[in-house]
Q: What sequence folds into this?
């Protein structure tokens, strides 16, 4: 039995067609279906603008935002070519007690001298442009996120705006997609958009300021593909007409990788950042100094043992076959040997899911875990290939002591 196959929406020019499930992707063929792309309607875009933008965010977020204000090197300042855009950053805002609130992908738009002018023949110029950063955020909590950031603004010279109508978030992923965006491995991705060296397509480089965007490697994991913010009135470059798909396929892709996203999958006000693997996803800097909620995160990282972690899950029947649409987020995972709760399902789609499980129970073996009230549904925790080796060593040492 195969996993749930969501019906896909493919874009052809301005019309959309709906194909039957035999044209859909499942967890089995996403690895060979790519590259595909999804517009992320679950995400919105916020703009931070003003002289104190970096200082303001540096005191709040888990990652080191100062890299966006670092001066360019000598070679970049003297080059006649547009300067390369800085890669995006993944970060989180925590409560004062160190619990997760919101995740953000931060982008610094290219400076005027990093863009080509409208003729495409040289760098542009706009000396009056203010410093700004764009953030890709969870759309379901957009209003309260704006209220929260404005509450902490006090006298900081920074404007915080909802620009979701003007910009959209996209993900490019799937199999057959290079994991590095370089001129050798992915020449198209490395050359499309402002500030990407030489724009070989020549198309976006001569059509004005609103096309100053490009694809970047996902800052969490290279294997997740490419991510970007683009103007809402365009289709991003490198998306073939028959390869724009429903966002559920991106969700399925993330579930297989064991990566949660947003304030629903990472419960707002409850989740411990290290249990949801945010350190391994490049969302936390342990060298930047103080930020809101930093004390608990740093203490746990340096002294504590992470007994629970977010893991990819597969849902199976008694015969070991994958079962479809049987498990809902919030379901409890039970250890059949001890009859105790081993964890909770945080996200689910078809036969795949994410679960926050105690590591002691997670890897006991096939058939050891089931869903509360659905004993015929077995839960298999999957070891991800991107986990640092020390995470398994911590688990083994803890198990030996226990």
A:
């Amino acid at each position: 039995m195969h996993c749930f196959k969501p019906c896909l929406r493919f874009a052809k020019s301005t019309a959309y067609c709906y194909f039957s499930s035999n044209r859909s992707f499942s967890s089995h063929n996403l690895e060979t279906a790519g590259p595909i792309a999804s517009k992320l309607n679950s995400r919105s875009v916020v703009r931070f603008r003003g002289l104190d933008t970096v200082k303001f965010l540096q005191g709040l977020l888990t990652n080191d935002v100062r890299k966006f204000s670092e001066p360019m090197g000598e070679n970049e300042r003297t080059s006649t070519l547009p300067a390369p855009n800085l890669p995006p950053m993944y970060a989180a805002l925590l409560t004062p007690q160190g619990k997760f609130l919101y995740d953000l992908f931060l982008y610094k738009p290219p400076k005027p001298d990093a863009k080509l002018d409208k003729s495409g023949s040289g760098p542009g110029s706009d000396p009056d442009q203010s410093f700004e950063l764009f953030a890709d955020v969870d759309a379901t909590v957009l209003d309260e996120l704006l209220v929260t950031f404005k509450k902490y603004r006090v006298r900081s010279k920074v404007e915080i705006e909802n620009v979701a109508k003007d910009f959209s978030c996209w993900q490019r992923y799937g199999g057959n997609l290079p994991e590095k965006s370089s001129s050798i491995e992915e020449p198209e991705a490395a050359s499309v958009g402002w500030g990407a060296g030489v724009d070989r397509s020549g198309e976006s480089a001569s059509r004005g300021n609103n096309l100053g965007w490009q694809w970047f490697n996902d800052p969490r994991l290279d294997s997740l593909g490419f991510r970007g913010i683009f103007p809402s009135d365009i289709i991003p470059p490198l998306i073939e007409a028959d390869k724009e798909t429903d966002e559920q396929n991106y969700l399925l892709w993330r579930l297989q990788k064991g990566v949660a996203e947003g304030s629903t999958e990472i419960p707002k006000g409850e989740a411990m950042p290290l249990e949801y693997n945010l350190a391994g996803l490049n969302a936390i800097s342990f060298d930047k100094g103080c930020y809101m909620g930093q004390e608990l995160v740093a203490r746990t990282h340096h002294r504590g043992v992470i007994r629970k972690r977010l893991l990819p899950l597969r849902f199976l029947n008694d015969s070991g076959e994958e079962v479809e649409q049987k498990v809902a987020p919030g379901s409890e995972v039970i250890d059949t040997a001890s009859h105790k709760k081993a964890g909770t399902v945080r996200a689910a789609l078809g036969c795949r899911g994410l679960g926050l499980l105690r590591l002691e129970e997670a890897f006991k073996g096939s058939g050891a875990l089931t869903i509360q009230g659905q004993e015929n549904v077995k839960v298999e925790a999957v070891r991800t290939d991107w986990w640092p080796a020390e995470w398994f060593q911590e688990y083994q040492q803890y198990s030996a002591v226990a």
About this structure: Residues 389-401 form the longest helix (13 residues).
